[in-house]
UniProtKB/TrEMBL annotation:
Keywords: ATP-binding, Membrane, Nucleotide-binding, Transmembrane, Transmembrane helix, Transport. GO terms for cellular component: membrane. It comes from the Bacteria. The lineage of its organism: Bacteria, Pseudomonadati, Bacteroidota, Flavobacteriia, Flavobacteriales. InterPro entries: AAA+_ATPase (IPR003593), ABC_transporter-like_ATP-bd (IPR003439), P-loop_NTPase (IPR027417). SMART domains: AAA. This is Sulfate-transporting ATPase. Transmembrane segments: none annotated. The keyword Transmembrane helix applies.
Amino acid sequence: MNDNKVIHVEGLTKTFGDFTAVNAITFDVHKGEIFGFLGANGAGKTTAMKMLIGISNPTSGKAEVAGFDVFTQAEDIKKNIGYMSQKFALYDDLTVQENITFFGGIYGLSRKQIKEKSALLIQELGLENVDHQLVGALPLGWKQKLSFSVALLHDPKIVFLDEPTGGVDPITRRQFWEMIYKAAHQGTTIFVTTHYMDEAEYCDRVSIMVNGKIEALDTPKNLKKKYKADSMNDVFLKLARVPS
């Protein structure tokens, strides 16, 4: 895989019986890129993401993530990525500090690394006064920002974010995207799914899935120009009507 490509997908397919959920998709994602993976519910984007993070076996095709093959090296992929699920991933009945320590251990960090990284994380998020408070008591926006920071704890090459800003207020959404920009600027590749079309504007490139296929892939600017649209929402609405 090219040094600048951290994800390479070629003809990746997933079927369930007679149903094809992901139909021969092909794309690359480059180091430090913010790559938006868009599609309506049922379009196949979550199924595709599950194959890329090593928790679902593809039916056919090829894919490499962080230099590892999705068919034969799924465990290596898991060690080299971060993942934040649509449903809040941390433990509500553990404190902020306990969550960081727990996940640091899962990621294989030493006690010294966990201590150093947790102190920095808590300081950057401004959680010094609540680090011994149960995560369940934090506002949703703070939970999401903490979850993203924990996904970065082991310095992964790629972070997969599944609808990371669902349910949070517009100000928190903007703050969350500032964290994404910072991580990307430091060389971490961000692979993000979202149903907020305005957030597609924040991505370097976006793909749009319709009925299991990638119908469009380019920069937001180029897609709006190609489809004579004023916004990414207009692009999405036009593509959603494209026959599969």
